[in-house]
## 1
Amino acid sequence: MIDSHCHLADETFAGDLSDVVERARAAGLERALVILEAGNDGEAARAQQLGRLWPEVRVALGVHPHQAHQFSDNPPGAADVVRGQFLQTPAARAIGEIGLDYHYDYSPRAVQQEVFRAQLQVARDLRQPVVIHTREADDDTLAILRESGDPVSGVLHCFTGSTALATAGLALGLHVSFAGILTFPKAGALRETARHVPLDRVLVETDSPFLAPVPYRGKRNEPAYVSQVLAALADVHGLDALELARRTTANFHSLFRP
């Protein structure tokens, strides 16, 4: 198994990182993709520690829409930070997470859009996949992805959207990744959407430390719990969990070339 999206370099894990890694490996995880906030020195240092504990870990780097406001006066500056750190990080395999978040609006929407565009161009220039965050901003996210420029590969992460959004993302060549929300009792509509995602374009993730799946809901999430997401998705598709693990692992390798 692979956790295709987690925040193991977050300070939440600083006190017991080695134990978290040990539990992940014991659960059968081959590796994880760890999301780093570009320009965050604390996360970069913890990522180096993580690399020593779990050499198979790979990372993605990006300016999240919540932090886009830091570049209000110079949106292209976000791209410069991401590009520079990416080229200095041997384990980097993707640009992200990047995108739009209109739920919290921690950053002005116009700034979010320009920072998103700038980072998409970095991904095109470096020929790297993207990890996309979209919340209550689906139309604008899709519009920006469809703008002129070479298409990008990547993933709609922690997918909670509609079947229409999934279909549009797939048409753009993106993968779709499901997290712990898929296991929630009231997530029937999401499970129905998941049924429509082809098995060669699906990924699983934890988004830890957030969104712990059933039966760990309400606790701190961690990569070992991705097995619960995998089991729920396997049930949706009527597959054995081991077979789905094989397929999602192959999808991860195809997209991120770890």
## 2
Amino acid sequence: MVTGVPTTQFTANASAPGTAVGVSVSNFLFTPRDTAVQTGGTVTWTWNSGTTGHNVTYTGGPTPLPDSSHTQSGTTTFSTTFTTVGTYTYHCTIHPTQMSGSVTVVH
């Protein structure tokens, strides 16, 4: 037994992902790149890209994959409501090497 050593207590706090999550599409990036949402929740991508076109194209995840967006620019939006648990990957088909992300859906 060791005496005279102070004890330390740690507390961890966690919260569940939201049911409404926003992702910005600007500067050739999805921000945040990776996000999480609860089952039944919606992710909305908002374009802040001026005249540069981008899209959200699903590349992996539970099947069937959700519908992808059309190429858009300006200040438009695109939303997906997720009903199946899993991780969905996506990218912009115009800029696939620099614009990619994921959505993790949890209970």
